[in-house]
Amino acid sequence: MSDNVFPGMSDYGWDEALEASFTPHREAGLVPARVARVDRGRCDLITGTGPTRATIPTDLTPFPCTGDWVALHPGEAVLAEVLPRRTALVRSSASRRSDGQVLAANVDTVVVVVSLAARLALGRVERMLALAWESGARPVVVLTKADLADDTERALAEVAAAAPGADVLAVSATTGDGLDALRAVLTGTIVLIGPSGAGKSTLGNALLGTERLAVGEVRAADGKGRHTTVHRELLALPHGGVLIDTPGLRAVGLWDADSGVRQAFAEIEELAERCRFADCAHGGEPGCAVLAAVESGELSQRRFDSYLALQRENEWIASRTDARLRLARKNERKAITRFQRKLYRERGRG
């Protein structure tokens, strides 16, 4: 067992598959570690001998994030390599550039946290579910602050309709209601995502069994809170698995999430298979099963509009990414041409 080589590493997700793949690195004198937190060119790591802090080389690619497995130079406390990611939760960068921001890596369960003390924003839930499905992890929607809700059952039904294929649970960290049911569906590495004030840190503390995460006040007027969590941090759970808490997400932009959008709107994708034309855009074509479902009430107009909006957004960011790749290739070809011309000139002078 790998845990015999590195005591405690299995508590953070180290397994036989990772142990086997790490053999070449170990032969090179490196040791495995998991990134618990990243902060300004340095990172906190979990190793087999305990926590440590290491330097991130400026040219290391990809740049590590919370949840990554890495190879570490033990004597120098410098990262050597980021190991391939099984899954990655990625959103478009806040600057709206054509690259993505990795929020957490090697995640097994993405918990989309929604507060029942605020207005229920189903479009935001669908957006976060698209990110969760695209990551390769399993999404779970948790409706927090159930003790403050006017009609929990109605909210559960509305969110369940907007989250096909995902578990939807209502909990109250204050009373403890629903926490046992939630623990039963959480596995492996768990990341909490949602807006400020949704109750992520409070829920995280309930799962951890201790007040480890900072909790802030929420404005009564709109149910919004301040960013009390400022870093993504990985923590071991008392009953197995690990937890990653994240700062509140003001903007949740999609990034290369075509598969995630399709899974988040699985029932629309199923309807589309019955359209007369295989390339139906659901914009008025004859024989469109999706539009027929909207007209009959089988599919709500709100959900259809949300689907179209996320599709358009994802297509836009994909076009930006393609443009960036084309420019990079063009610049690379120019650099090669300049190098060749310089080489020919130097040979000519020789």
UniProtKB/TrEMBL annotation:
It holds the Pfam family RsgA_GTPase. It is found in: Cytoplasm. Its cofactor is Zn(2+). It comes from the Bacteria. Residues 105-250 form the EngC GTPase domain. Its main location: cytoplasm. Binds 1 zinc ion per subunit. One of its GO terms (biological process) is ribosomal small subunit biogenesis. The keyword GTP-binding applies. Its EC number is 3.6.1.-. PANTHER family: SMALL RIBOSOMAL SUBUNIT BIOGENESIS GTPASE RSGA (PTHR32120:SF10). Monomer. Associates with 30S ribosomal subunit, binds 16S rRNA. NCBIfam families: ribosome small subunit-dependent GTPase A. Belongs to the TRAFAC class YlqF/YawG GTPase family. RsgA subfamily. This is Small ribosomal subunit biogenesis GTPase RsgA. It comes from Saccharothrix coeruleofusca.
